[in-house]
Design goal:
- Helix 1 packs antiparallel against helix 2, helix 1 packs across helix 6 and helix 10 crosses helix 22.
- With about 600 residues, the protein is α/β, with parallel strands linked by helices.
- The protein folds into four domains: about 130 residues, Phosphohistidine domain (Glucose Oxidase, domain 1), CATH 3.50.30.10; about 110 residues, Enzyme I, Chain A, domain 2; about 300 residues, TIM Barrel; about 50 residues, no CATH class.
- The strands form two sheets. An eight-stranded mixed beta sheet has the order 1-8-7-3-4-5-6-2. An eight-stranded parallel beta barrel has the order 9-10-11-12-13-14-15-16, surrounded by seven helices.
- The structure holds phosphoenolpyruvate (PEP) and magnesium ion (MG).
- Phosphoenolpyruvate binds next to strand 10 and helix 19.
């Protein structure tokens, strides 16, 4: 419990982005659908019709499920209401009239649903009675809700002044679309540490706490709030003492960050016995590159290009070219690894991921979407090869699960290169091409994959999720998302061994690369370079300089003989807690405290750190 904080107004969640924030709450909720008339062009009609079809099918499924649940648990009389709703939903007045209006009046599906249901509701109000009219309103709500979800769920909020954004749930597209300079902090009911909103918050250096469960109920627009992104605490309506306490903590933290940034530019990330482990930055938007370099990054190890698409809808080839060029020029002569569009899971693109899939994380996503959309994919590859002239470009394909996928993507890259050359357009001479290792099949087939790429980068966020079958965004299973699970460590070791056998470099760009204790393991397992949130680089460089490569390797040997993530965590804590404590960073302290708290929660005490 944060010292000096009252219990009644304090909520505990998951710290997902470090830092302190004090500010007024701005509540962001599902788009309030006013359905103001929005006209569309003719080529948008199929998209709107598909949206409607999906939203309609979802609503129907939900109502049928609700009906059978109520009928089982309460009785068939009470389930009748849902039967009526199903009938209304299937009435041609809705199923035919909505698409008809979209086609003939060239309006959005949302507006068409509004017009049709509004008319029906008025009719029933006048001629049948209010109850029936409420049924129509209810159905309209359900349909509109799903239409908004299918179309990207939320509109980016317009933020007039600095605030702490509070929401039940947030999407990366919403965050990328808002004026992030005005966001002091983020507090959500849901979410996990490796969800993309959390990753984006970290890269924008906005303190964030997720999995607060009921913050969206407890905090109102305009309330004063303190957010502690180290401890995972939100305090609504804090006392003056609490405000003073956190103002002081914030000041100390900023001071230390400034000192670290100054010293980090000069420091090389080497172990005590001279092993150099380059530390690069993960960025979401190309313009973050120069700031990342100021924070000590030796290049960009992962640029998540899909964030460009969240922000600008579908950027043109020219817009992409300019954005990639900016990143490459500002990093030069350092490398920039640009990952091709990686959609799916919690990253839905408005114009691509229309499918209503039962399991989108393992569905039509990422490289699969790109290979199925050659026009879009080739446009991105063209922009990349053109931009490659301006720096040291590395292209990386995400979620590769088979050799066929890798070959398919490389073939398109070759085709694009040839056609650009035919057109007489200047392209980069040599571009390294790599694959992300995020799926167990890629690890198991690393010998084959490694022969056909210049480098690989392990995406531990997905690799952990798929190895352990634990949804990375689901706070209900957050305790099971264990980066130090013996199976995960074996996956990483297999990747390093096979990749090194083929003579290529292994990088890690998942969140494990940001974590001090994981760094010991990654280095000991043979990982050659690390790419992480820029805000972590300074502290992690300092930490690397306190360990030796030999020690990291020995630690890994000992850890691989253990049988559970808990035992491995304890060994790491025992061996490194004192050194971490001596470095004194706020995030280090928070990490150690979290470890001790977790032990206390189990009724145990943390192991005694070695001297
Ligand atoms: C990963 O999966 O570890 C990764 C870096 O990619 P993303 O987090 O964008 O899925
Ligand atoms: Mg991934």
């Amino acid at each position: 419990m944060a010292e000096g904080a009252r219990q009644d107004n304090l909520l505990r969640g998951l710290p997902v982005s470090m830092g302190y924030a004090v500010g007024r709450v701005r509540f962001v909720h599902r788009k309030s659908w006013s359905a103001t008339e929005r006209t569309i062009t003719e080529d948008r009609v199929p998209y709107e019709l598909a949206l409607f079809e999906k939203a309609h099918a979802r609503s129907l499924r939900e109502l049928e499920m609700l009906g059978s649940q109520i009928s089982r648990n309460v009785g068939s009389r009470d389930a009748r209401i849902f039967k009526t709703h199903v009938q209304i939903l299937q009435d041609p007045k809705i199923t035919e009239e909505v698409p008809n209006l979209v086609r003939t009046k060239l309006i959005t599906a949302e507006r068409a649903v509004y017009e049709v249901t509004h008319e029906l509701s008025l009719f029933f109000e006048r001629h049948v009675g209010g109850d029936k009219a409420r049924d129509i309103d209810d159905i309209a709500d359900r349909l509109m809700g799903h239409l908004n979800e299918e179309a990207g769920a939320l509109d980016a909020p317009v933020l007039d002044e600095p605030c702490i954004v509070v929401a039940h749930t947030l999407t990366p597209s919403l965050l990328a679309g808002a004026d992030t300079g005005k966001i002091l902090g983020i507090a959500t009911d849901t979410g996990g540490a490796t969800s993309h909103v959390a990753i984006l918050a970290r890269s924008l250096q906005i303190p964030a706490v997720a999995a607060l469960n009921r913050i969206s109920l407890d905090a109102k627009d305009g309330d004063l709030m303190i957010l502690d992104g180290f401890e995972g605490v939100a305090i609504v309506d804090p006392t003056e003492e609490e405000q003073a306490l956190y103002a002081e903590r914030g000041r100390r933290h900023r001071e230390r960050q400034r000192d670290l940034a100054k010293q980090s530019g000069a420091e090389r990330p080497v172990t005590l016995d001279g092993k150099y482990i380059p530390m690069l930055a993960n960025v979401e938007l190309p313009e973050e590159t120069s700031r990342a370099l100021e924070q000590g990054a030796e290049g960009v190890g992962l640029l998540r290009s899909e964030f460009l698409f969240f922000r600008a809808g579908a950027p043109t080839e020219e817009e992409q070219f300019q954005a990639y060029r900016e990143a490459l020029e500002s990093a030069y002569p350092r490398p920039v690894t640009i990952r091709t569009v990686d959609t799916g899971g919690d990253k839905l693109l408005k114009n691509l991921s229309l499918s209503d899939e039962p399991n989108p994380v393992m569905g039509w996503r990422s490289i699969r979407v790109c290979l199925d959309n050659p026009a879009m994919f080739k446009e991105q590859l063209r922009a990349l090869l053109r931009a490659g002239v301006y720096g040291r470009l590395k292209i990386m394909f995400p979620m590769v699960a088979s050799l066929d996928e890798l070959r398919g993507a490389k073939k398109m890259l070759d085709e694009v290169r040839l056609s650009l050359e035919d057109e007489g357009v200047r392209v980069a001479d040599s571009v390294e091409v790599g694959a992300m290792v995020e799926v167990p099949s890629a690890v198991l087939q690393m010998e084959d994959l490694a022969r056909e790429v210049d480098f690989v980068s392990i995406g531990t966020n997905d690799l952990i999720q798929f190895t352990l079958a634990v949804d990375r965004s689901n706070e209900k299973v957050k305790e099971l998302f264990q980066p130090h699970h013996p199976a995960v460590l074996r996956m990483i070791r297999m990747t390093c061994n096979a990749a090194h056998e083929a003579g290529i470099v292994v990088s890690v760009c998942g969140e494990m690369a940001s974590d001090v204790l994981s760094i010991v393991l990654l280095v000991g397992l043979g990982v050659d370079e690390l790419s992480m949130s820029p805000s972590r680089i300074a502290e992690n460089k300092s930490f690397l300089r306190t360990i030796s490569y030999a020690e990291a390797r020995e630690t890994v040997t000992e850890c691989l003989a253990l049988r559970s993530a808990r035992e491995i965590d304890e060994l790491l804590y025992r061996r490194f807690a004192k050194r971490i404590e001596a470095l004194g960073g706020t995030s280090y302290q928070a990490k150690l405290r979290k470890f001790r708290d977790a032990a206390a929660l189990r009724g145990e005490s943390a192991p005694e750190p070695e001297a």
